[in-house]
Amino acid sequence: MKKINKILFPFLGLMPLIASASVESPYHAIVAADGSGDYRTVSEAVAAAPEGLTSPWRILVKSGNYDEFVVIPESKPYIHLIGQGKNSTAIRHKLNQGQRNMEGGRFANSAFWEYSCNNPDVKSPGNTSAVVFVKAPDFYSESISYINDWGRETWSGPQALAFYGNADRHALKDCALISFQDTWRTPDRADTRTYARDCYIEGAVDYMYGGGDVMVENSTFYNVRSGSVIVAPNHNEEKWGYVIKDCVIDGNEEARDGKQKLGRPWQGTPRTVYINTTMLIPIAPQGWDDMGAIPAVFAEYNSRDRQGNPLDLSQRKTHFTTKSRKNGNVLEGDAEKTRLTKDEADRYTYEAVIRPEEGWDPRAMMEPLPAVKGLTCTDGHLEWEPVEGAIGYVVFDGDDIIATVTGTSHRIEKVNRAIRIRPVNAAGSMGRTALLR
């Protein structure tokens, strides 16, 4: 049996929402599929954003399914996409590298194919199957699911990316990346940093791949078939490569047969470390597999099973074999590092990999502001005390956003369910919730 996706999307029957951005909103734009915001699609909101930004352009994406292909061009850095939760806000589209539809023919009426016909540059390898393709630096996203419906529905290849971020300083918090083959592509360049926390990444074939220094913390990698392979890195001059830390490896019934692999070396001299990983499903004893290169570092530290017991790493693969793409000759060699000591693992810190002292600190963007205090309502007039660091607030009635404000008050006509207030920081991230009692 194929698994039923654990992330549900209860979008039907949503109440009409009435909030839209204005000069008094902490968000520069609000996207709402029902027309209650400034734009109906994420693409429209991105198109309207200025070029050459030097500070965050905050776009709030309300609950809903947004079936579209989104490109953020190099000229538009600092786009921040903030959703209402990865279980309720989804950017999704059905496409793949081979342009195949369910019947084996070509896709029709696809936002991507219309775009690619007018933008030939997107047709380079790896670009043509990404639902969301971010070319600009300083991108941030929170509480959104990125879904390639080809992978999610067919459970097969070819390449079908959910998200491709190809620039420096990208950060994801509480996002879901869902497909089957090549779900998430990281930057092609060595001089890039990507940070992800509290995310859910799903796939079966090389479903995190690419280059750059990438740190993923406190996230779940979910395997959806027997013989899944998680990462396929391509590193050359990167110092750290892929750093997967304090994460969980899980999967459906098909992925519980002990044949899953941690990764395989795509190109270059790949680097991947798993530190403090909890493996809820059994991994193949060799851990790694061959592909197209000899890795520099394929290593683990403190890997544990679902009961918290240390895993036996004695059978992990250390010798790798591949064929030269130039002449077909067999190349083989040992990885430089296949096991980490505690001292070595301790060097893989956020400060070392992300370098926040250089002015980019995604953890600070993600830090939730505390809940407002003193929330009262008198004759329909809401008031609350300001939160230090807040640039504004989001007012909810139940799960519906009814206002985004920069002040500390709002008038409401009626309450359908329960009034909640969340502060917004400079990145657009929503803080902790206060409930009107």
How would you describe this structure to a colleague?
- The longest helix has 8 residues.
- This protein has 6 helices and 36 strands.
- The N terminus is likely disordered.
- The strands form 6 sheets. It has a 10-stranded parallel β-sheet. Strands 3-6-9-12-15-18-21-25-27 form a 9-stranded parallel β-sheet.
- It is elongated.
- The termini are far apart.
- 49% of the residues are buried.
- Helix content is 8%, strand content 33%.
- It has 437 residues and is mostly beta strands.
Layout: helices, strands, pairs:
Layout: E1 29-31, H1 42-48, E2 57-61, E3 64-67, E4 70-72, E5 79-83, E6 89-93, H2 111-118, E7 132-134, E8 139-142, E9 145-148, H3 149-154, E10 163-165, E11 170-173, E12 176-178, E13 184-185, E14 193-197, E15 200-203, E16 205-210, E17 213-217, E18 220-223, E19 229-235, E20 242-245, E21 248-251, E22 261-263, E23 267-268, E24 271-275, E25 278-279, E26 297-301, E27 304-305, E28 319-323, E29 330-334, H4 342-345, H5 350-354, H6 362-366, E30 376-378, E31 381-383, E32 392-397, E33 400-405, E34 409-411, E35 419-424, E36 434-435
Parallel strand pairs: 1-2, 2-5, 3-6, 4-7, 5-8, 6-9, 7-10, 8-11, 9-12, 10-13, 11-14, 12-15, 13-16, 14-17, 15-18, 16-19, 17-20, 18-21, 19-22, 19-23, 20-24, 21-25, 24-26, 25-27
Antiparallel strand pairs: 28-29, 30-31, 31-34, 32-33, 32-35, 35-36
